[in-house]
TrEMBL record:
Protein name: maltose alpha-D-glucosyltransferase
EC annotation from Swiss-Prot or TrEMBL: 5.4.99.16
Keyword Metal-binding carried by entry: yes
Native species: Myxacorys almedinensis A
Family in the record: Belongs to the glycosyl hydrolase 13 family. TreS subfamily.
Length: 554
């Protein structure tokens, strides 16, 4: 591994679930040995970092986000030694590993909670969690899992008190006012850092503290605590990365960067639904508007941008009107909706239209930030919205046309979830083996765009500027650094479109299309009537077409 403390700025992150990836021992559940065997695939795909969903001991009532032991591996996925072997094998291939640090809450089966509910009131043990005699406190706080919970308080018959939880009732929130909790989290962090993991995704991080009269999100105390985690990391583990999961409006989200002294990365939640909105509305405005309203971030920080992940396509960061639009456009069947979002994968959301899948990926790989790919989306996997909760997007990875999609040798009934068998996305045709053999498959195209992105660090760390377009259906922007100028144009429309751009800044440059190395006509400066130089440049794009151009001086 090269030592570059800013590695995350030019990373390609691949999010995966150990459970869903590859089952080595035929019990129907993916495991670390299976994942290790698939590292060659991930290396060939070109990704440079893996983000692993939770793999810790857990009753699995929220797919592992309900931890019952912080410093070991759930035995269904293997042993801690299996994890270490995997980590070493990933590092040998130059692939970094990001794991989850779920510190807002634990499972109600965690020994800390078992101890707290029995401990005397006012004791440090009891105060590991947030208790109250009434469910009236913090009443300005929204409920996140609103299809499943009616309150952020639940009654505990053993403690004879209510406890606070932002998510499921079986996920009690830790109490950060207790110094013992703050210290315990440092110890968990040290454990995984000492093992050599490269990054931590800080799950549900805006909700650490509660204060009366607030919405209990993004509180100053939360930022102060995160800064203390960061300073600890900087002193002990200088090239590691903290990735916040702060599902917030951009003005609040940027606060998780501090002055470059808090988290290194944060997901851009408001951008994600607007990529889908712009596409269906055939209008660049939602994307332009949200990025123009995104404050600048410190140089050592980076957005994580994504199209889909393991959760619903969350619509928390849109207006009520936009949410209605998104439900109408992408989730007409109520079974496709859960909480405040849409539980579908990328390909089905886009009607399995290869052009739209490529277009959104072209934006994922060229807009400012580090792209995060969700496992299976690189082959256009389908979903199963009838599996409940968000499980429909968490089905086994489809490797081949063999039984169980090559994921497991178990009897099919034994798989943790069934593989996708509906006609359009059936694993017999939608799988890695079939697509690896076809140079025109989505998988081959994904390898190509990843390889191209990796050749040009300007995408990870260059400046970003919108280019006014005469046609609002065509989005245009420039990525630039001292070495290179890259022009990106993207047609959000289902019909062919033309647009004219003012490229006077690049007069006498030749655009070279980056995928095919084709030179386009030069950008010629003309003298405008007022004497200034003008360089209007016209482009025609196919339906959902896009171009990436390097602008070279003639
Ligand atoms: O650990 C509880 C949950 O934490 C994350 O949740 C995030 O996803 C929610 C949507 O499912 C979102 O609304 C919320 O703002 C986030 O914190 C995690 O990604 C979930 O899988 C998990 O259930
Ligand atoms: Ca297994």
């Amino acid at each position: 591994m090269t030592t570059n403390p800013l590695w995350y700025k030019n990373a390609i992150i691949y999010e995966l679930s150990v459970r869903a990836f590859a089952d080595s021992n035929g019990d129907g559940i993916g495991d670390f040995v299976g994942l290790t065997q698939k590292l060659d695939y991930l290396q060939e795909l070109g990704v440079t970092a893996l983000w692993l969903l939770p793999f810790f001991p857990s009753p699995l009532r929220d797919d592992g986000y309900d931890i019952s032991h912080y410093t070991s591996v759930n035995s269904i996925y293997g042993t801690l030694d299996d994890f270490k072997t995997f980590l070493q094998a990933a590092h040998q291939r130059g692939i970094r590993v990001i794991i989850e640090l779920i510190i807002n809450h634990t499972s109600d089966q965690h020994p800390w909670f078992e101890r707290a509910r029995r401990a005397p009131e006012g004791s440090l043990e009891r105060d590991f969690y947030v208790w109250s005699d009434t469910p009236e406190k913090y009443s300005d706080t929204r409920i996140i899992f609103q299809d499943f919970e009616t309150s952020n308080w639940s009654w505990d018959g053993i403690a004879k008190a209510f406890y606070w939880h932002r998510f499921y009732h079986h996920q009690p929130d830790l109490n950060y006012d207790n110094p013992a909790v703050r210290q315990a989290v440092f110890e968990v962090l040290d454990f995984w850092m000492e093992l050599g993991v490269d990054g931590l995704r800080l799950d549900a991080v805006p909700y650490l503290y509660e204060r009366e009269g607030t919405n209990c999100e993004n509180l100053p105390e939360t930022h102060e605590y995160l800064k203390s985690l960061r300073s600890h990391i900087d002193h002990k583990y200088p090239d590691r990365m903290l990735l916040a999961e702060a599902n917030q409006w951009a003005e609040d989200a940027v606060k998780y960067y501090g002055d470059g002294d808090e988290c290194h990365m944060n997901f851009h939640f408001p951008l994600m639904p607007r990529l889908f909105m712009s596409l269906r509305m055939e209008d660049s405005l939602p994307i332009v508007d949200i990025l123009q309203h995104t404050p600048p971030i410190p140089d050592n920080c980076q957005w994580a941008i994504f199209l889909r992940n393991h959760d619903e396509l969350t619509l928390e960061m849109v207006t009520d009107e936009d949410r209605d639009y998104m439900y109408n456009a992408y989730a007409q069947d109520p079974a496709m909706r859960v909480n405040v979002g849409i539980r579908r994968r990328l390909a089905p959301l886009l009607g399995n239209d290869r052009r739209q899948v490529e277009l959104l990926n072209s934006l994922l790989f060229s807009l400012p930030g580090t792209p995060v790919i969700y496992y299976g989306d690189e082959i256009g996997m389908g979903d199963n919205v009838y599996l409940g909760d968000r499980n429909g997007v968490r089905t086994p990875m489809q490797w081949s046309s063999d039984r169980n999609a090559g994921f497991s040798r178990a009897a099919s009934q034994r798989l943790y979830f069934p593989v996708i068998v509906d006609a359009e996305y059936h694993y017999v045709t939608t799988n890695v083996e079939v697509q690896s053999a076809n140079q025109y498959s989505l998988l081959s195209w994904m390898k190509q765009i990843i390889a191209l992105r990796k050749q040009f660090s300007v995408f990870g760390s260059g400046d970003f500027k919108f280019l006014p377009s005469s046609n609002h259906k065509i989005l245009a922007f420039v990525r630039a650094d001292e070495q290179i100028n890259v022009l990106v144009v993207a047609n959000l429309s289902a019909a062919a479109q033309t647009a004219t751009f003012d490229l006077s800044l690049f007069a006498n440059h030749v655009p070279t299309e980056m995928f095919g190395q084709t030179e386009f006509p030069a950008i010629n400066a003309k003298l405008a009537p007022d004497g200034t130089a003008d360089a209007p440049y016209s482009l025609t794009l196919a339906p959902y077409g896009f171009y990436w151009f390097v602008l070279n001086p003639t």
